[in-house]
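Hello,

I think I submitted the zinc ion job twice by accident. Can you confirm which output corresponds to this input? Input:
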Amino acid sequence: MESRIKIAIVPGHSARRPGCKNKKFNVSEFSYNLDVCRALFDLLHAMPLFQPIIFLRPPGGYKTAMEEMGKILNVYGVKWCLEFHCNGAQNSSAQGHEVWIHQDTSEKHRMAAKIINNGLGYILENRDRGVKLADESTRGYHFLNIPKIKCIIIEPGFFSSHTDTALLLAKKGQYIEGISKFIKIAGEVLF
Ligand SMILES: [Zn+2]
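Support: Only one job matched these inputs. Its output is below.
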């Protein structure tokens, strides 16, 4: 049991501020990803490699919340933290999956991110936007910059796109099942 790698799975945003919403399909990032994380917890827990926890973003401003989250996850001994989002853009034709990591993360974590990004493409067959490297000027930076923990943002598609939203709802089960397998493959590279 003790040799299991502690990983945190986090639905992006919060119940009060649920992130990007698609009104046509009446779904928000937080509600969708809370379901994803709950189901993923069971699948990851069944793997001898991981000891997963689900973690919800603490209240407060983004930077403060991420600092607080970093402190707590470090006390738990979490080594890898995966935050689940769905993208949003002004341009409703923007589509596809992408993954974000810190620009200064390790080579192994870059490989792990690539495996997860390729996995999203395999599962969802939507546009590949690639692995993106975050710096201080990009969104998600305070999460990705949490000390001592490898952090990754997973964006399977855009909730501002009806096409991607319909896809993510129709393939929710396949997404959860599929991403658990790619997280395992990526975890074996990382640890
Ligand atoms: Zn988001």
